[in-house]
Structure to design on (1210 residues):
């Protein structure tokens, strides 16, 4: 055993990394152990009697340590070792070491789990193996071995050997595993006692035995063990440590500077830190100790109770409490955060040579959440000062599979928002599932569901910037099941880009399907401009006739939906190839088109007036957990008003206030945001349960009223009866019903033409009472969309509370 | 509900019945049967306090048979409990006449009901329906959306919303779809555990073979994703009862995650073929037919009490396709006159005109829809215009209008 460790120390240079020697220091005896050791040492010395006169306390203690304070075993071991050296002695350590591969693995596993923090469990094993590469194939003898050599050779007929030639064969003591065999039981104690008696008798007979070469060798071993292995061998430890201190990383860089300047005081290093590991011996499970035997125990001895900490002998050290304040990392993070949120960062505490000062300044850097302070900016003034680029949000609408996502993917790709590498990656992925044409769409469609089905499910948001403007793309799903998502996307946009598939039949199918519905929804959201992207022109060979036909039909349709003709822009383009998206087409077949590209049209389009002056209204489009810094974030369009960091906002219908910790617009941190933008707000002081999609965030001074029912002027797209409906207001989607049809109105003058109509037909305008399932924040002038059974039945304007 | 004893005079309709409710649905029937002023006799526990001669008061709980005259009924849909309050109508040694008492009708405890104004045709019809012994179709339905789920139990006469689940699911975000995936996972696991708690699957060892079919409906792919989740979860946890349930799961499409889209789900042909001809499906189909006629707007479909009454007066709800749809909430009217009016109307259509009468359960979605239309609607045999007095001036909207004021 000791040999193993000695060799290990020789190898120490290989492992003398900063952390490795700590492991030995970590194995400190607990107070219990010490006490037990003291008692056991006394009793062992008594048991040894005269035979133990040449045995040192250290040796006894080591033996006790090995045998878990089993006095009986220790005595026999000591007697065998010191009083009766035998030729077999050499074999002993080897046998103990001879663990099978399995055992090694098992004990390694045991060690791995329960080591106290700060230890490297593999170290001892690593040199065990390197020292005895052959031993690993040897097997440990079975535990049922006879307990002494006499028993073992009882039936061997060599009894007539002269006494001086008689060798004593010492067999490795089967180490009774305390736990499993009940080492403390009466039976075991009895057995140990009997064994002790026998061995005492034997020892007496051998007491004056010859001291031959083997003994000399043994002595050499013991000297070494005394020096290195014994628990009490602390004498040389500090010097070892001091050898390493120079290399050791300091726990905190802060005290370093002053400390190094201070005159080195050649005071002897004294233990500054005492570590206790009370659970040190209690770690191995019963199963583990069965597997590994007691041989394990010998390896974990290196016990040191105390060790000096570096710098501890410098006088400043006592005053510095390096762990009192936040760690340098924390400080750095906090500083970064403060800088990020824009609040004045707290002054970086000057590293004072005086420890007290440092401690004070550290205390000042309280760890608790910094209170977000409003800068009380005049946001509108800031807005004018900033000379911000035009900010536009547009929603891409159209029938399913008309190429909305692909067109946007192409736009982003051509504008270098998406790099070539990502596109190549997507293309490769798309090809592997045989949908290579979807690669561009996958820029927008990120979820696995969307990719595997090739359909956009939810709004995808993306940003790009040109010289004049900053755009937010809201890519809406075209499938009819996801109209609710499309409505929530449209409510955040300034104008729609309608994508139409120009190929035969597709256009016509779309007109019956979601092309129509999307137009109606976009219009009922109050959008006045529209760009119609006539897509997939490459499939109809850039036929002018086809383009004109579509233009004509769509113009008729759009004007019917009350888009002014002059505010409709038609662009022939091809999303997959990118013609007329950012760059003009070079296709000779498209010579006839001289108008603008999609990008030019986007830059030109007139934006609706922003309502900066009105009180804050923000429709929550998403509630999510950002990162650790912002456990709760919301995003949504500011319909009216402004907000800035530190503002207190009111979330409705929960009626809970929150504080804005930070704001991001287009993924960039800002101090304020204004109407028309779609910011992400990181909030504090609110529980996530109070916020959900569709809520309204407003200023507590001008809250929106919660209503259960309201009258609305409704433009019917389908037949309207009193019936259960879904009510959409911006991002909100709530079940409700049309309770009564109050009156049918004249479309132009708004006069009542018929009271209490029985039914409202498509195209008619009526005043209806809408009943909501629960109270929701809706105020006058808000636009609602009413759907029933997956069809949009009408668009309404909230008039007053019913 | 078991009809234990019935003594009803055919002519006058006076008499009483003794009923034994056996399943929760029977409470719903009882609720529909019991009207104000009816007399009901059932076992009750009442605390009776006695004042001795010396003036000390001792109170005692006594189980006794009580007859009360109903003043109001209170039905808890969720738990299927019916509380009938009224005044004691027959005196006994513990209770004085006219004292108030609320009877809690319980399952497997018989009660006797005597109608104040005799058993009318509607009441008899209800009684017949209530005492039908054959077991009716029942199913569980889960209407799902991303982050919301409604777990309902659909029986012959009721749709009971057992649980509504809302889990915040973050939406997809650029670069980070993790939140969405995790949110959906959490949503599914919550929904499944809630569903299992509601359904109360028989233990693996139980021999009870009947598992109710489970209908999953959602817009988009959520229902399918949920079914896939159930399957993997059943395999992962080797939950035998859940495995056994899987074959009886039907996935359907709905346009929204709200409970009223059950209407649409149950009227879709894919589902009606799978579910046997339930009352629910019939009612839904009928409502759909009515709404189609409404849309045609040819004057053959009318709704609202006044209009329908007029149509019946004109004999338009008669033989050859006339259908009167009436919500059973109208028969529960607290006002006896009101109720009698409706009973008369029903009798007239059925017996005099020869039309068809359908009483829709107000607890089904189709019934709720009818309730929105005033509780009564009719499909006429011939078109009738202007049942609602005011002249209908068809205004004509055409041409371009200016942006702004009127446009919605």
């Amino acid at each position: 055993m000791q040999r193993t460790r000695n060799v290990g120390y020789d190898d120490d240079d290989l492992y003398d990394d900063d952390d490795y020697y700590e492991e030995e220091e970590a194995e400190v005896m607990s107070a219990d152990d010490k006490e037990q050791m003291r008692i056991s040492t006394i009793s062992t010395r008594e048991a040894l009697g005269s035979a133990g006169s040449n045995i040192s306390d250290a040796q006894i203690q080591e033996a006790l340590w090995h045998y878990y304070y089993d006095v009986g075993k220790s005595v026999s071991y000591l007697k065998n070792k010191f009083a009766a050296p035998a030729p077999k002695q050499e074999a002993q350590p080897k046998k103990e070491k001879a663990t099978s591969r399995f055992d090694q693995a098992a004990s390694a596993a045991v060690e791995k789990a329960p080591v106290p923090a700060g230890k490297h469990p593999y170290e001892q094993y690593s040199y065990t193996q390197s020292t005895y590469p052959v031993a690993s194939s040897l097997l440990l003898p079975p535990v049922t071995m006879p307990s002494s050599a006499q028993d073992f050779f009882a039936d061997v007929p060599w009894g007539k050997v002269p006494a001086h030639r008689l060798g004593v064969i010492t067999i490795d003591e089967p180490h009774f595993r305390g736990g499993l065999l009940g080492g403390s039981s009466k039976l075991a104690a009895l057995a140990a006692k009997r064994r002790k008696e026998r061995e005492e008798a034997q020892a007496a007979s051998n007491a004056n035995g010859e001291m031959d070469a083997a003994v000399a060798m043994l002595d050499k071993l013991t000297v070494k063990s005394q020096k290195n292995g014994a628990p009490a061998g602390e004498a040389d430890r500090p010097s070892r440590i001091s050898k390493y201190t120079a290399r050791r990383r300091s726990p905190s860089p802060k005290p370093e500077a002053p400390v190094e300047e201070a005159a080195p005081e050649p005071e002897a290093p004294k233990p500054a830190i005492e570590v206790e590991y009370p659970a040190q011996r209690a770690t191995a499970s019963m199963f583990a100790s069965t597997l590994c035997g007691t041989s394990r125990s010998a390896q974990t001895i290196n016990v040191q109770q105390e060790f000096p900490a570096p710098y501890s002998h410098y006088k400043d050290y006592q005053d510095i409490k390096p762990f009192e304040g936040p760690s340098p990392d924390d400080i750095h993070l906090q500083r970064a955060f403060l800088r990020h949120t824009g609040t004045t960062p707290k002054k970086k505490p000057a590293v004072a040579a005086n420890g007290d000062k440092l401690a004070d300044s550290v205390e000042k850097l309280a760890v608790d959440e910094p209170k977000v302070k409003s800068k009380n900016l005049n946001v509108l003034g800031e807005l004018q000062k900033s000379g911000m680029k035009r900010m536009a949000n547009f929603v891409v609408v159209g029938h399913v599979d008309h190429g909305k996502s692909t067109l946007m993917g192409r736009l982003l790709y051509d504008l270098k928002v998406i790099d070539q590498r990502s596109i190549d990656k997507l293309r490769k992925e798309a090809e592997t599932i045989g949908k290579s044409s979807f690669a561009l769409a996958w820029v927008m469609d990120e979820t696995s569901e969307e990719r595997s089905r090739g359909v956009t499910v939810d709004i995808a948001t993306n940003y790009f910037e040109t010289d004049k403007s900053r755009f937010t793309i809201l890519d809406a799903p075209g499938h009819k099941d996801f109209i609710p998502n499309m409505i929530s996307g449209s409510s955040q946009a300034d104008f729609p880009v309608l994508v139409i598939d120009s190929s035969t039949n597709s256009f016509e199918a779309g007109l019956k399907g979601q092309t129509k519905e999307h137009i109606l929804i976009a219009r009922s959201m109050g959008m006045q401009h529209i760009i119609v992207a006539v897509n997939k022109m490459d499939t109809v060979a850039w036929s002018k006739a086809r383009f004109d036909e579509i233009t004509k039909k769509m113009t008729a349709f759009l004007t019917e939906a009350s888009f002014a003709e002059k505010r409709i822009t038609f662009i022939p383009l091809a999303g997959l190839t990118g013609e007329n998206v950012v760059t003009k087409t070079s296709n000779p077949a498209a010579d006839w088109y001289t108008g603008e590209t999609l990008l030019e049209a986007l830059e030109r389009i007139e934006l609706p007036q922003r309502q900066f002056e009105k009180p804050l209204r923000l429709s929550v489009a998403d509630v999510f957990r950002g990162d650790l810094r912002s456990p709760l974030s919301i995003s949504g369009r500011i319909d009216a008003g402004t907000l800035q960091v530190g503002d207190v906002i009111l979330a409705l219908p929960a009626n809970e206030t929150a504080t804005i910790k930070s704001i991001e617009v287009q993924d960039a941190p800002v101090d304020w945001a204004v109407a028309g933008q779609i910011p992400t707000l990181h909030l504090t002081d609110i529980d996530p349960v109070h916020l959900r999609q569709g809520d309204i965030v407003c200023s507590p001074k001008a809250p929106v009223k919660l209503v259960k029912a309201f009258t609305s002027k409704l433009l019917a797209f389908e037949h309207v009866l009193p019936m259960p409906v879904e009510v959409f207001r911006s991002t909100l989607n709530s079940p409700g019903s049309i309770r009564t049809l109050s009156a049918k109105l004249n479309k132009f003058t708004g006069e009542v033409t018929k009271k209490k109509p029985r039914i409202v037909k498509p195209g008619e305008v009526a005043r209806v009472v809408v009943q909501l399932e629960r109270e929701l924040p809706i105020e006058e002038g808000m636009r609602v969309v009413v759907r029933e059974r997956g069809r949009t039945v009408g668009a309404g304007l909230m008039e007053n509370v019913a | 509900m078991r009809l234990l004893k019935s003594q009803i005079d055919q002519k006058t309709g006076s008499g009483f019945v003794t009923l034994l409710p056996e399943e929760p649905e029977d409470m719903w029937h009882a609720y529909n049967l019991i009207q104000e002023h009816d007399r009901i006799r059932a076992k009750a526990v009442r605390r009776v306090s006695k004042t001795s001669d010396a003036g000390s008061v001792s109170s005692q709980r006594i189980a006794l048979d009580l007859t009360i005259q109903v003043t109001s009924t209170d039905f808890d849909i969720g738990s299927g409990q019916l509380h009938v309050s009224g005044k004691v109508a027959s005196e006994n040694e513990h209770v004085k006449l006219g004292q108030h008492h609320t009877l809690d009708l319980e399952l497997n405890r018989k009660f006797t009901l005597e109608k104040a104004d005799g058993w009318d045709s509607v009441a008899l019809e209800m009684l017949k329906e209530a005492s039908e012994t054959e077991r009716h179709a029942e199913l569980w339905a889960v209407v799902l959306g991303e982050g919301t789920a409604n777990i309902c139990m659909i029986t012959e006469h009721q749709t009971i919303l057992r649980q509504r689940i809302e889990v915040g699911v973050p939406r997809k975000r650029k670069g980070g779809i993790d939140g969405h995936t995790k949110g959906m996972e959490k949503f599914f696991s919550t929904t499944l555990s809630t569903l299992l708690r509601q359904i109360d699957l028989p233990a693996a060892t139980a021999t009870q073979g009947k598992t109710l079919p489970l209908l999953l409906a959602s817009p988009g792919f959520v229902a399918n994703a949920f079914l896939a989740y159930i399957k993997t979860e059943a395999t992962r946890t080797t939950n035998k009862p859940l495995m056994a349930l899987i074959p009886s799961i039907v996935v359907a499409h709905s346009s929204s995650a709200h409970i009223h889209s059950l209407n649409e789900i149950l009227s879709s042909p894919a589902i009606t073929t799978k579910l046997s001809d339930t009352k629910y499906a019939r009612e839904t189909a009928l409502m759909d037919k009515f709404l189609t006629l409404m849309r045609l707007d040819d004057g053959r479909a009318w709704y609202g009490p006044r209009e329908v009454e007029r149509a019946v007066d004109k004999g338009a709800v008669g033989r050859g396709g006339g259908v009167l749809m009436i919500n059973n909430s109208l028969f529960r009217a607290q006002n006896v006159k009101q109720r009698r009016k409706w009973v008369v109307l029903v009798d007239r259509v059925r017996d005099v005109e020869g039309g068809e009468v359908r009483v829709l359960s107000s607890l089904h979605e189709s019934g709720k829809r009818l309730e929105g239309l005033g509780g009564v609607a009719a499909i006429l045999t011939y078109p009738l215009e202007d049942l609602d007095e005011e002249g209908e001036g068809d205004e004509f909207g055409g041409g371009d209008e200016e942006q702004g004021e009127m446009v919605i």
Notes: The first strand of chain A starts at residue 273 and ends at 274. Chain A has 27 helices and 24 strands. Residues 186-206 of chain A form the longest helix (21 residues). The domain at 706-801 of chain A is CATH 2.40.30.10 (Elongation Factor Tu (Ef-tu); domain 3).
